[in-house]
Specification:
The complex is a heterotrimer of chains A (245), B (78) and C (325). With 78 residues, chain B is an all-alpha fold. Chain B has a domain of 54 residues: F1F0 ATP synthase subunit C (F1FO ATP Synthase, Up-down Bundle). Chain B is rod-shaped. Classes of the chains: A alpha+beta (245), B mainly alpha (78), C mainly alpha (325).
């Protein structure tokens, strides 16, 4: 022990020294450092918690924002759709009105044109008759009674002979409506005669339309209901051609 | 004469006691072998293996150090 | 792409080269001194400082000087850390920051092994590690183990050999002793080469292990040593348990021896190696110094960590451990 240097006194000195250092270092270093570590750990945990809460809040806010945007978009789409519908409806209305107006104007114009044509044709009728009489005189070579000539011509065009419609005498017709086509416009008198003739054949309240088609040359085409009686010159000529064949 | 014999016996004893360092050497070799194999198989564990290897080396080295202490005691104390 | 540094004729390498050359010159021209190796710490003071009735005379030994130096260093560091942390920064800088990082590592190590008892165990671990590392690394200081007084010794060198040597010496003694043997007794010797220091640490470590064991388990801690619990229920195994418990007592004492001689042996062997290399091959001593630096730190960690492991084992308790297995 002597030579090893182990000595109870020195051993106690060293143990005392350790105790002093232990106590002082624990007071000065370990406790403050451990407190610091704890505080830092707490701060970091707090920071993480805060960050988590903030992230959650942000996620919520984002979700809300998405929802709001989606709602706004839906609203906007709806508004646009409604506006489009309304605009479409308005446009349709306007167009329909315009169409109606145009149609009315065209109808009016057509009616006017038809009236004008009828008027001109009506004016022409007497001249045509005169021309026809003159031509016939030239051809036949004798002077016909002018009054009779006119009657013939009238009969030719209107198919009315001595106050009767020749066509209706030959055929009996019944129907709900009637349409009378002539080569030249009929005079009001003639129309009245035809009306009178047709009246018994037609059911009451049926209207009679008068049309003009110079293509048929003369006579009348009467269409009552679904039946057509062709008394026109063209039709007769066609029949003649058929027979001659 | 007796003193010379005692002197010689001290040296012989010190040398003989150092035979024990053999064990420490073998132990260090084995621990390094194990650690290196572990590092080669799992390079990710390099850090922890190194630390533990050095600790193990310190422990097995202590055995050799005990022998050295005995040798010193024979040489310088007795 | 790595930048290739241009070759520069730096100054440090030339200084190192000059020092190496100087070492070789010294080795050739300066006579070798046989080193003085002594296990017991040397007395620096001539007479005893004071005497106590039972303990005997107190000399000022060179390891006591080292102890005072170590105390100054540790208390200085401790006070600096205390001042810095009291300022209230969450992240201390400088010395306090370094200490705090070191202690955090030690604390995490303790907590991973000892759990809730880490607060109690950590100061022992830290104090022992710090003391041992400071006292070990004191070996690196120039002047330690080399500056001292000349004293007569039968194993010493003659004075005419000593004087040209590079050990700074204060000649003491009269002229008529010229020619007899002298040795240098250093003023400061590494504290870990004093068996008193290592034995004190070992005793404190083992004793506090028992204290912590009692604090953790109360009187049940004694079951570890005197295990009568299974003696009646299972006579054969109970007897074995009892003997194992008695062996535990022996192992506690062997722990003291093991702690003492592990640290002492490592550092003392290192010192002897340095002495011998210094007298035979001085230029190898610097490399050996590096190794000693490494060893010194590792021994500090080993001492502290073993203390911590023994203490945390003492908190776990004998019975609980068996249940786990």
């Amino acid at each position: 022990m002597e030579k090893l240097g182990l000595n109870l006194g020195y051993l106690l000195v060293q143990i005392l020294n350790f105790a002093i250092l232990f106590i002082v270092l624990r007071k000065w270093v370990y406790e403050p450092v451990l407190g610091l570590l704890d505080k830092r750990r707490q701060t970091i945990a707090q920071g993480l918690e805060d960050a988590r809460i903030a992230a959650e809040a942000r996620a919520n806010a984002e979700r809300d924002a998405e929802k709001i945007v989606a709602e706004a978009q839906a609203r906007a789409a709806q508004v646009v759709r409604e506006a489009t519908d309304r605009a479409d409806a308005a446009a349709r209305d306007v167009k329909a009105a315009a169409d109606a107006e145009v149609a009315k104007a065209r109808e009016a114009a057509l009616a006017e044109v038809a009236q004008e044509r009828n008027r001109i044709l009506g004016e022409l009728r007497s001249q045509v008759a005169a021309l026809a009489v003159a031509a016939a005189q030239k051809i036949v070579g004798e002077t016909l009674d002018e009054k009779r000539q006119h009657a013939l011509v009238d009969q030719f065009f209107s198919g009315i002979k001595a106050g009767k419609v020749t066509l209706l005498e030959e055929n009996t017709v019944t129907g709900a409506s009637a349409e009378i086509t002539s080569a030249l416009p009929l005079t009001a008198e003639e129309q009245k005669i035809i009306r009178g003739e047709l009246a018994p054949a037609l059911s009451s309240g049926a209207e009679i339309k008068f049309a003009v088609d110079p293509g048929i040359l003369g006579g009348l085409i009467v269409r009552v209901g679904d039946k057509v009686v062709d008394g026109s010159v063209t039709g007769q000529l066609q029949g003649l051609r058929q027979n001659l064949k | 004469m007796t003193g010379d014999i005692v002197e010689a016996a001290k040296f012989i004893g010190a040398g003989l006691s150092m035979i024990g360092a053999l064990g420490g050497g073998v132990g260090i070799g084995l621990s390094v072998q194990g650690a290196l194999e572990g590092m080669a198989r799992n390079p990710d564990a390099y850090g922890t293996l190194l630390t533990n290897m050095i600790l193990g080396i310190a422990f097995s080295e202590a055995i050799a150090i005990y022998c050295l202490v005995i040798a010193f005691l024979m040489l310088f104390v007795l | 792409m790595e930048k290739t540094r241009k070759w520069r004729y730096g100054i440090n390498r030339w200084i190192i080269l000059l020092l190496l050359i100087a070492l070789v010159v010294i080795m050739v021209f300066v006579p070798r001194i046989q080193p003085h190796i002594q296990v017991a710490p040397e007395n620096v003071s001539h007479g005893p400082l004071f005497s106590l009735p039972v303990l005997g005379d107190f000399y000022l030994t060179n390891t006591l000087v080292a102890m005072v130096l170590m105390d100054i260093i540790l208390l200085g560091i401790g006070y600096a850390v205390y001042r810095t942390i009291k300022k209230g920064d969450l992240v201390p800088h400088g010395l306090a920051g370094a200490m705090e990082a070191l202690l955090e590592v030690i604390y995490n190590l303790t907590e991973s092994s000892a759990g809730k008892w880490a607060r109690k165990i950590f100061p022992y671990f830290a104090t022992i590690s710090l003391m041992v590392v400071v006292s070990n690394l004191m070996e690196m200081l120039p002047g330690v183990d080399s500056i001292g007084v000349l004293e007569e010794s039968p194993h010493g060198n003659p004075l005419w050999v000593m004087i040209p040597g590079f050990m700074a010496a204060v000649v003491q003694g009269s002229a008529e002793h010229l020619g007899e043997g002298y040795v240098v007794v250093p003023y400061v010797r590494v504290l870990s080469t004093d068996l008193n220091f290592t034995a004190a640490l070992a005793v404190v470590s083992v004793a506090m292990t028992q204290v912590i064991g009692f604090q953790a388990q109360g009187w049940r801690y004694l079951i570890k040593f005197f295990n009568f619990t299974t003696l009646i229920s299972k006579p054969v195994f109970g007897l074995i348990d009892l003997l194992v418990g008695l062996l535990e007592i022996i192992s506690e004492f062997s722990k003291v021896l093991s702690f003492t001689f592990r640290l002492f042996g490592n550092i003392f062997a290192g010192s002897v190696l340095l002495f011998l290399l210094g007298s035979m091959l001085p230029f190898l001593q610097s490399g050996m110094m590096l190794f000693e630096f490494f060893i010194g730190m590792i021994q500090a960690v080993v001492f502290g960590m073993l203390t911590m492991i023994f203490m945390s084992q003492a908190t776990h308790g004998h019975g609980a451990e068996e249940h786990h297995e």
